[in-house]
Amino acid sequence: MTMTNARAWCERTELLLGPDKAEKLRQSHVLVVGLGGVGAYAAEMIARAGVGRMTLVDADTVGISNINRQLVALHSTVGQPKARILADRLRDIAPDIELTVIQEYIKDDATDRLLDSGPGYDFAVDAIDTLAPKVNLILGCLGRSIPLVSSMGAGAKTDPTLMEIRDIGKSHHCPLAHMLRKRLHKAGIRSGFPVVFSPEPVREGSMILCEEQNKKSNVGTISYMPAVFGCACASVAIRTLLGEM
């Protein structure tokens, strides 16, 4: 198969962006951390846009409760690693994509190892659910001048038209963004990267407490909201890589 034929699936993207910007995407390396409801959709949209290299990070396996909203979650994939399933899917979409797959919870020193390993990243997508590792990844990216976008909570919301993409300092009426801002303020960070969030009020009774690994609560989530957040994260990644943000 010639390179021309191998990239024929990118024809419509190149028609939209032009050959130079399509090539820019092909030469880019994007990191996606967290491959659940938001992250997997973000990763797929980035791959479908023609980005040539990606690093996918998630240690989780598919659970039965993921099926209502997560791209990799099917009855046939329950119990299988999310990162491996998504990697196989992306290779089927973009056969010449270069993938690094890391099945590890990224926290503490693992964040530094991830960000300092191998060739540098041109962009990072933070789709981590848990606050402490989320903060570590964001601070690590900012400290290394890696452009990023961070997804806030898509759970307990139902109206996609209320979603916003704004600088973290201008996020509002989002509990996760509020907690994130407080942590970042302690590190002297008040702005400097975009977040995807929704100020829609949390639906009453949509959260229950739990004691699971890296998780203290379960939040009710509708099928389409994580996908919308993931697509928004992908749009920020692509437009930033192209210099159009």
From TrEMBL:
GO terms for molecular function: molybdopterin-synthase adenylyltransferase activity; tRNA threonylcarbamoyladenosine dehydratase; ubiquitin-like modifier activating enzyme activity. Its EC number is 2.7.7.80. Residues 16-244 form the THIF-type NAD/FAD binding fold domain. The keyword Ribonucleoprotein does not apply. GO terms for biological process: cyclic threonylcarbamoyladenosine biosynthetic process. Keywords: Nucleotidyltransferase, Transferase. Pfam families: ThiF. The keyword Transferase applies. This is Molybdopterin-synthase adenylyltransferase. It comes from Rikenella microfusus. The lineage of its organism: Bacteria, Pseudomonadati, Bacteroidota, Bacteroidia, Bacteroidales.
